[in-house]
Design a protein that fits this description.
- This protein has 6 helices and no strands.
- 75% of the residues lie in helices and 0% in strands.
- The protein is mainly alpha-helical.
Length: 85
């Protein structure tokens, strides 16, 4: 994922996948940095908002997470995992 991001730094999707992988590895700081870049480059990317919500839950920012999950469902209604968040 890091190679893909370095290949094309403007693709928000690449940053989102790097954030997702970083989150799964427990690297919350790296995940947050990458997901913020993803959203900055493409704010209509529902999956990025979902990843942000997961990060926010892990850091205790529950109200922010709820807002991110709501945004996820507006942009990508099929992302049913946002409901469980």
């Amino acid at each position: 994922f890091e190679r893909a991001v370095n290949f094309d730094t403007m693709r928000g999707e690449y940053h989102m996948y790097l954030a997702w992988a970083s989150l799964e590895q427990g690297n919350l700081a790296g995940a947050l940095e990458s997901v913020n870049k993803a959203i900055e480059r493409d704010p209509s990317q529902g999956d990025a908002w979902w990843v942000l919500g997961r990060i926010q839950l892990r850091t205790g920012a529950v109200k922010d997470a709820l807002s991110s999950f709501e945004k996820t469902l507006k942009l990508k209604p099929g992302r049913t995992e946002a409901w469980s968040g």
